[in-house]
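This section describes the prediction task in plain terms. A model, or a person checking by hand, is given the sequence of a single protein chain and must write out its three-dimensional structure as a string of tokens. No templates, partner chains or ligands are provided. The sample shown here is typical of the held-out split.
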Amino acid sequence: MEKKKFKFLRGFATRAIHSTIPKEEESRPITTPIYQTTSFDVKDAFIKQISPKYIYTRGGNPTLHELEIKLANLENGDIGETFASGMGAISTTVLSIAKKGDEIIADYELYGGTQGLFNNILSKCGIKVNYVDMTNYDAILETINDKTKLIYVETPANPTLKITDLEELSKIAKEKKITTVTDNTFNSPHNLRPLEYGINFVVHSLTKFIGGHGDALGGATVSKRSDFRLMTEIKRNAHGMGACLSPFNAFLFLRGLKTLEIRMKRHNYNATELAKALEERTDKIEKVIYPGLPSHPQYELAKKQMDGFGCIVSFYLKKGSNVQKFLRGLEIPHYTVSLGDADTLIEDPYNLTHFSVPYKVKKMIGITKYMIRVSVGLENVEDLIDDFNNSLDSL
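The expected answer:
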């Protein structure tokens, strides 16, 4: 059997676990050290008249650098940059690509925080955002004009779990010489790697699956070397805008990567089993949405594009149901925002994550008062199914 000499060809878990730091010392740490410092002594570099690798942590830090290398590798990319939050990654990336007078195309179905950025901040920067259905390619082509610089998409969409065909979208964008950005938070690089489908940049909220324990905020942007020029600008703007990740949080995310594969497999399994169980409750539930169910309208696309279907399950209680009674009746899930935690989290998007989204948009994409979004955790799925059934029985 041929030995895999090139470390980037090894399996996902192996690459996520092992350090990329050069093995130069006779005794070296197995875990990446936390370089908990704001600045670095650069006297030797000054004497040798060479450029120092690190000066100030806002512009670079060995712990952050290790995380950036690993994230890029796991996304099958080449370059990464980390941020203090997912929104830090999104805002810096978008504002590095689009300038005053430019236009962006985005899907109607976006995370509420991203919609807030697009609707409230980009307009003040002179950037126009045009919203379309990313599954309607004619609408995308009709919206593209000479000012279009960026197409931005989430897949699966939050919280309707609509799937965008990234390969088809990237073909359209490349023909028109438009940059593409995909928010891959709902998947993690274990379940989907958008760069493989021709997307230019991938953004993440590391807070979710990468961290996995709900105890650290962070974000990241990843690209291939072919987009080096734009990525250099993103890095420069990250330094200038100041949304830098702390070394300690970088350490927590490096720790999270070590268990990402086994956690994602459990998330995928638990969510699939819970979705199947909920789909059987036709007495209380109108509809269940999960990409891993054959009933999902884009099930075949999801199977083709994704290596796992994720932890998010959305469903609609029957009209007239007491939503608050159902939520109060659950014992295991926490009623809160976020996703990708070891704990199961639940919310009603109408009143929580998408509260600020205009009513007409919520109505158009199907966010009603009876919609429930579950981030399925790592508990024993039998306990989750029993808990949901007991609360449904009380309605």
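For orientation: The chain has 15 helices and twelve strands.
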